[in-house]
Write a structure and sequence with these properties.
This protein is of the alpha/beta class. The protein is built from eleven helices and twelve strands. Bound molecules: S-adenosyl-L-homocysteine (SAH). The site of S-adenosyl-L-homocysteine (SAH) has 17 residues, from β8 and β10.
Length: 351
Amino acid sequence: MSSPQLPATQSPQPSALLGLAPEQLIAWVQAQGQSAYRGKQLHQWIYQQGARSLGDVTVFPKAFRQTHIDTPIGRSDIYRRSVAPDGTVKFLLQLADRQIIEAVGIPAGKRLTVCVSSQVGCPMACDFCATGKGGFIRNLAVHEIVDQVLTVQEDFQQRVSNVVFMGMGEPLLNADSAVAAIQSINRDVGIGQRSITLSTVGIPGRIRRLADHDLQITLAVSLHASNQALRQRLIPSADHYPLAALLEECRDYVNQTRRRVTFEYILLAGLNDQTVHAEELAQHLRGFQSHVNLIPYNPIAEVDYQRPTRQQVESFAQNLRDRHIAVSTRYSRGLEKDAACGQLRASLPAG
Ligand code: SAH
């Protein structure tokens, strides 16, 4: 007895085509009764022509386009776009369920960096960060992350050179989607893994698990404090994650991936920017294949931390250099449009 032929419509319907591997796209078009080469065409139309619906794919037969007009490709809508004087563009993107996230395009000569969100809101509640003040709503799906890169690329009409997971959310709380999105951004959008950075505040066990994916991305860890007590004050989740354990996981990451780790360190005037803090930090990082990225605090409305003076920032950096720590300073871009690190929110601005 031969088994009945399954009608094409019974093949599993993906929630979105964006983010699928080329072979999955091919399998999908084949399940719809089309030849494999249509899968390759679809890939090209999604990633290079910016197709937002199957109706846009004009190389496809008309009947097929009409039948699948509602099959979601998975692109979000630009809800609002604002340009800061330094050319940084902040996008408020509306997802299929009407939630709003932010993505930022940061041009610098030939480079174009996209700062992507990994969650709607964030549950980590770091005291200095605007995203955490609004609470957590949900994880982003793979296509909702990849879309942010395509949206910025299309808007700037320039190839994206770098992607940083430094927007809203904690990517290691949404690690499966973040990793799948990284793979798609690399494979489908064509951005080298070494040009992709994932920033995390650190979730116990997750950095080690990330290492198992054998990615060549840069891991950035939001340290922000030179000792456990101070870190707990700034980052509530640090209560359950001793600094020593976090650093140990980072060491394992370096040993396994052979990639050096970046430690992000927000500078808050009077709080963590003194010589004693530089000394403590240098002690933790001695002999560690790493790099410290200082981020002078970007003001948010809810708290009254202060950004240190340029002179204080420079002296902190010099203090670290004197102790043989590799250091750079990142004055965030897009400050005027609340598009800088820590200023992104899920809520819409007033007005
Ligand atoms: N959840 C990830 C990504 C967050 S945003 C993480 O914690 O790493 C990327 C960076 O911006 C993090 O280092 C974050 O701590 C930092 N940041 C948050 N609020 C900030 C602020 N007000 N000023 C400067 N940097 C901030």
